[in-house]
UniProtKB/TrEMBL annotation:
Alphabetized UniProt keyword annotations: Glycosidase, Hydrolase
Organism the protein comes from: Nonomuraea mangrovi
Similarity comment: Belongs to the glycosyl hydrolase.
Catalytic reactions of this protein: Hydrolysis of terminal, non-reducing alpha-D-galactose residues in alpha-D-galactosides, including galactose oligosaccharides, galactomannans and galactolipids
Presence of the UniProt keyword Hydrolase in the record: yes
Protein name: Alpha-galactosidase
UniProt EC number: 3.2.1.22
Domain of life of the source: Bacteria
Pfam families: Glyco_hydro_36C, Glyco_hydro_36N, Melibiase
Domain Glycosyl hydrolase family 36 N-terminal positions: 29-254
Domain annotation Glycosyl hydrolase family 36 C-terminal: ranges: 616-692
């Protein structure tokens, strides 16, 4: 397009940006983000900015910048803040050059006081990936107070509505949708992980988008530590979203010769409503993020809710035999197998089999698991330590702490500092040893508390870097494990859904969505999760009734049908299930396996209703198979939808159900299916799975 204008173009969208000079001030700005334009038309949007009223109190152009800084004539939300020697805080960047490669462009900017800033842009499928690199080429240290991955301007709309998820432990990824308020709307985590309270993404529309229609812009951050995302709506109507790692408070030193690189901020435009946006994110995750995206996730059994801390060889082998009879393919031993771990007050950090519970180590147990035809998995919590442990007594300096300050425990544990090379080396040693010694196929990697007293005594003035280096250290350990043990699969867990994002998904195969296994609560959690992340990575269990957390009683079929919407697992106490329940479970697991490729790898459609509240349904389409999971939690609701209209089918094709009845795709999408589950007559908690096969394939 020219030496100062460029376009990042996907199959359906375009992102046009470039360098704009205003006197001595040079800025990298966004001119366009929306539907794909003809190649010849891309240049037509360059510099085409409506005239806006300026004043001595407001600069209307800073909202369009890809990296608005703190300095000069800017009063909006900064993506980059720096403090130079002598207390200078005004950043003044000038464009130097554009460095192009086959896959990305870097716009190089420099500040006379020594900073070299690279603004990077790359197209990956339908996603525009952006990140920033900052190098200190000057003679003095610089301190960065904010370094976001980039800011995105949302095109002018008649109105602005945001969609996101928020919640708490056991209430993760609850969908929130409301008008974007004038001012600054910030979603953040100060916990050291992605957190249960929010997830690092936001969708913006004009207030008129639906599930299948309308323009939607998404900004997401691929990072698993603390983060901040701010949507800024100006009183005069402009909107921009900036996102990056870290939270307000910590600042990061950049010594001469050092470089700091941010994680990626991801932008995606869709004109097909929230559903199309979600499906584009799922495709991105499968093709460009997940390490093993097209494997079929095995049906697993996890022993936690059956045994809690009462773990021993005999009991685990008994559960393994029962699980194998149901058709389970992966058996995972949860907490309580190691050290002196008989409750949550001791033993965390001492990663060897408890000699009283497993006198022969874990070999007999996992040999039996494999003899039963299942793979072997183990729960670990590598980032934590109990003060009552051999590890802590030997290495009290390894935990996050400030000299002379308390070391507050949560869940009776402290956080190990993965920014330290010795901690990472220790973790790789015993984790790799467990895989080798016991032929493990699977780790459930847990992380059960937020950071407190987040100091790094040995790092001195550089201690705040632990907010970055801990997460990068976790990434490095996982990457090393996968390199050494290619068949190893990892599930990310953080007290449930506290660490779910595109950063951790690059290194893990599944995520534990919530510790809340209540089927009705899980419907809302799974619905919010689905806005960005694919079903294949969503671990979902069937547990006991009454549920151990909520005490709610839900029929077994309903519990299964909710868990079948992702990677199916079982976590109940099988010793207490009746013969009829075990037989029903066996049949439902077999039914799931028959359609597993469609659920895990198909295109997902959220069809109707409010999950867990009204009659609702979710659909998956993969090759010739269509799967619909339908739910109705309350029989007393006399106004549910009674007929489900399917989506994403070939209108000319004919589809056949299990009873041999045939309908055209257009009929199924326009007229729909009448579901017994959605009838106003019947009991609470009705559910069903409908399977259709496209004929002629």
């Amino acid at each position: 397009m020219g030496d100062r204008a460029w376009a990042a173009v996907t199959k359906t969208s375009a992102f046009v940006f470039g360098v704009e000079a205003a006197g001595e001030d040079t800025r990298v700005v966004q001119w366009y983000w929306g539907p794909r334009l003809p190649e010849a038309a891309l240049a037509e949007v360059v510099g085409q900015v409506p005239r806006r009223t300026g004043s001595g109190f407001h600069d209307p152009r800073d909202v369009d910048e890809l990296l608005p800084v703190e300095g000069g004539r800017r009063w909006g939300v900064p993506s980059l803040q720096a403090a130079y020697a002598g207390g200078v805080r005004s950043v003044e960047l000038s464009f130097v050059e554009a460095v192009l490669s086959d896959t990305e462009i870097e716009l190089v900017l420099r500040d006379p006081l020594g900073l070299r800033v690279g603004v990077h842009v790359k197209v990956v499928s339908e996603v525009v990936e952006r990140w920033v690199s900052v190098a200190n080429e000057g003679p003095h240290a610089v301190r960065l107070g904010r370094l976001d991955s980039g800011s995105w301007a949302i095109p002018e709309q008649a109105g602005y509505r945001y969609t996101g998820v928020a919640g708490a432990w056991a209430q993760e990824t609850q969908l929130h949708r409301a008008e974007l308020a004038v001012g600054e709307t910030t979603f953040t985590s100060r916990t050291g992980t992605t957190s249960h309270r929010a997830n690092p993404w936001i969708m913006i529309d004009a207030g008129d988008a639906t599930e299948e229609r309308g323009e939607v812009w998404t900004v997401a951050l691929a990072w698993s530590g603390s983060w901040r995302l701010t949507a800024q709506r100006r009183p005069e109507g402009d909107v921009a979203v900036t996102a990056g790692f870290g939270h307000d408070g910590p600042s990061w030193p950049l010594d001469p010769g050092e470089t700091l690189v941010t994680p990626s901020a991801l932008g995606l435009y869709s004109d097909g409503g929230f559903g199309a946006a979600s499906r584009a994110w799922h495709d991105y995750a499968r093709h460009h993020v997940l390490p093993t995206p097209f494997e079929e996730r095995p049906v697993l059994y996890n022993s936690w809710e059956a045994t809690w801390f009462d773990v021993n060889e005999e009991g685990q082998i008994d559960l393994a035999r029962r699980a194998a009879e149901l058709g389970v393919e992966l058996f995972v031993v949860d907490d309580g197998w190691f050290g002196s771990r008989t409750d949550d007050r001791r033993g965390l950090g001492d990663w060897w089999p408890n000699p009283d519970r497993f006198p022969q180590g874990l070999s007999k147990l996992f040999d039996t698991v494999r003899e039963l035809g299942m793979r072997a998995g183990l729960w670990v919590e590598p980032e934590m330590v109990n003060p009552d442990s051999d590890l802590y007594r030997e290495h009290p300096d390894w935990v996050l702490h400030y000299p002379g300050r308390r070391r507050d425990t949560l869940r009776n544990q402290l956080v190990l500092n993965y920014g330290r090379a010795d901690v990472r080396e220790w973790a790789i040693g015993w984790l790799s040893g467990l895989v080798s010694d016991y032929g493990l196929d699977y780790f459930k990697w847990d992380m059960n508390r937020s950071f407190t007293q987040a100091g790094w005594a040995e790092a001195g003035e550089r201690a705040d870097l632990l907010w970055i280096e801990h997460t990068r250290g976790v990434y490095a350990v996982m990457d090393t494990l996968r390199e050494r043990h290619p068949r190893l699969r990892i599930e990310s867990c953080s007290g449930g859904g506290g660490r779910i994002d595109f950063g951790i998904l690059r290194r893990t195969d599944e995520v534990w969505t919530s510790d809340n296994t209540d089927a009705r609560d899980r419907q809302a959690i799974q619905d919010g999760y689905s806005y960005l992340y694919p079903a294949s990575a969503m671990s979902a269990w069937v547990t006991d009734s009454p549920n151990p957390h909520t005490r709610r009683e839900v029929p077994l079929a309903y519990r299964f049908h909710v868990a079948m919407a992702g990677a199916l697992g079982v976590g109940g106490d099988l010793t207490r299930w009746s013969p009829a329940e075990l037989e029903q479970a066996r049949e439902l697991i077999a039914a799931y396996k028959a359609v597993r490729p469609a659920i895990q790898h198909g295109r997902q459609h959220r069809l109707a209703g409010t999950p867990g509240v009204t009659a609702s349904a979710v659909q998956y389409v993969h090759e010739d198979t269509v799967v619909v999971l339908a739910y109705n939690p309350f029989a007393l609701s006399k106004h549910p939808p009674r007929r489900v209209r399917l989506a994403g089918l070939d209108p000319e094709a004919v589809y056949e159900d299990a009873a041999g009845e045939r309908r055209h795709g257009q009929t199924l999408m326009s007229h729909g299916l009448a579901l017994p589950t959605w009838s106003t007559e019947g009991s609470d908690y009705r559910s069903e799975m409908v399977v259709l096969r496209r004929l002629g394939i």
